Amino acid sequence: MPAPTSIPHVVDVLTFRGAQAGPTPNLLIEIPHGATRTADFDDVAQRLTSRLPEGLVDFFHVNTDAGAPELGVALAHRLIKDDPTKSVAMLRCRVPRTFIDCNRRVDASPEDFKAGKVTPGLMPWVTSEDDRALLLQRYRAYVNAVDEAAALVMPNGGAMLLLHTYAPRTVGVEVDLDIVKSLHAAYAPDKEPTWPLRPEVDVIGTTVEGQSLAPAAVVERLAAALGPLKLTLARGESYPLHPSTLAHGHAVRWPGRTLCVEVRRDLLADPWAPFQQQRISDEACARLAGPFVEALRAFW
């Protein structure tokens, strides 16, 4: 099966190969919320005819996984440096989840998304049928690329890292047409510190029924490796691995071979701020790459 290739405005496919690596990647890194640049937002926004909430780019910057692509690259370089027999394929989505989320089942109901404590698949401000068609076309192209990459990597003893980042605090706002106004109120200087602080790193692998789909050996090794950095690892504290997400489908299809992780953005951004494109620290990414590589060794 041929490896997937990059598609402009949909997916960047990057390959990192050790000097002694075989023909098939050993690790697939998926970054479904990898549209982190203002240009990613602008490319889609200017193509849509739906009336978008004023200042929607502010929601984009709060909600996208800033730092995840840079951490993925640092992790891949560290892995092949430490073990030149390994290679990595990394897929970075360039479709902003501000419009359609490429880690969601778009046919799931609003109740499903609320139960999973996740944002919707297709956002409520996308009202034009032409806009929906454009976004669904890009969504399907991305999902197909991930499925092709998984079919190449996973049957041969490979592993999959689903890499995410989240804002430092859990902010209780509704994703509706007033989202921008609500976010600015939530991030007011006197209000922001009152929201719950999220774990520094959280493995998202526990279903709503309480079953863990995360690989236990990898999780335990990651917890131990984060210790010297004085970072703690949570296990599903932020939200469950819900069937409304495509990550859940990967974990079920490839039992014991997938790891879904959230990293708090203020550990990577220099500095983190809610309503702007983030500047990501290379040093911070390199610092966190070590524990992840140490943990991923347990897959092999």
How is the topology of this model organized?
Layout: E1 11-17, E2 27-31, H1 38-45, H2 56-63, H3 68-82, E3 87-93, H4 110-115, H5 129-153, E4 159-166, H6 179-186, E5 201-203, H7 216-226, E6 233-235, H8 246-253, E7 258-264, H9 282-296
Parallel strand pairs: 2-3, 2-4, 4-7, 5-6
Antiparallel strand pairs: 1-3, 5-7
Write up what this structure looks like.
The protein is α/β, with parallel strands linked by helices and about 300 residues long. It has one domain: Aminopeptidase, CATH 3.40.630. The chain is about 35% helix and about 15% strand. It contains 9 helices and 7 strands, in the order ββαααβααβαβαβαβα. The protein has helices at about 40-45, 55-65, 70-80, 110-115, 130-155, 180-185, 215-225, 245-255, 280-295; strands at about 10-15, 25-30, 85-95, 160-165, 200-205, 235, 260-265. Strands 1-3-2-4-7-5-6 form a 7-stranded mixed sheet, with helices on both faces. Strand 5, helix 7 and strand 6 form a beta-alpha-beta unit. Helix 7 (about 215-225) packs across helix 9 (about 280-295). The protein is globular, with a radius of gyration of 18 Å.
